[in-house]
Amino acid sequence: MLTIIGCGNLNRSDDAVGVIIAQRLQKYLAQNPHPDVRVYDCGTAGMEVMFQARGSKQLIIIDASSTNSQPGAVFKVPGKELEALPEPSYNLHDFRWDNALAAGRKIFKNDFPEDVIVYLIEVANLDLGLELSPVVRHSADLVFEEVAAIIRQNVEA
Questions:
Q1: Residue 18, exposed/middle/buried by CB under 10 A (0-12, 13-18, 19+)?
Q2: What is the pLDDT of residue 155?
Q3: Residue 115 neighbours by CB distance under 10 Å
Q4: Which pLDDT tens digits describe the chain residue by residue (157 residues)?
């Protein structure tokens, strides 16, 4: 089972990139169904990532990043490098997907995917808005094509 999760905020321009790619992948899967591939738009809900990933062999997370790198830069990072146990907090909004990776592995043990890939796309604009900037839209197209190729490999496997 391959689970793909897009994260982000649709109201903050480039921060929406993960959600937009997930929605495109959902349309792609509707036209090219595969019983062992699931795609979710988890918005900003880290806790949901933990539960949706349970039982998968492979997990792909797609999100925006803001690290002062070149806008549109794509980082493909093994999930283990990004796992972070959450700081004590009573606010679930503080529970991000990196926390979900660490907590999910701790809670679900062998029922949590070992193979985790995270695609991070560097933002150009985080202002309120509904459009991706052109450089981030281009990177989103590249990530969409790469993940669609991974889905096709799962179909052939």
A1: buried
A2: 66
A3: 13
A4: 999 999 888 888 999 999 999 999 999 999 999 999 999 987 666 666 777 788 899 999 999 988 889 999 999 987 777 655 445 444 444 456 676 777 777 777 788 888 888 899 999 998 988 899 999 999 999 999 999 999 998 766 5
- Hey, what domains does the chain have and what are their CATH numbers? 2-156 (3.40.50.1450)
CB 38 within 8 Å of CB 3: yes
The answer to whether 38 and 94 are in contact (CB under 8 A) is no
SS (H, E, C) the chain: CEEEEEECCCCEHHHHHHHHHHHHHHHHHHHCCCCCEEEEEEECCHHHHHHHHCCCCEEEEEEEECCCCCCCCEEEEEHHHCCCCCCCCCCHHHCCHHHHHHHHHHHHHHHCCCEEEEEEEECCCCCCECCCCHHHHHHHHHHHHHHHHHHHHHHHC
| Distance separating alpha carbons of residues 85 and 42, to the nearest angstrom | 19
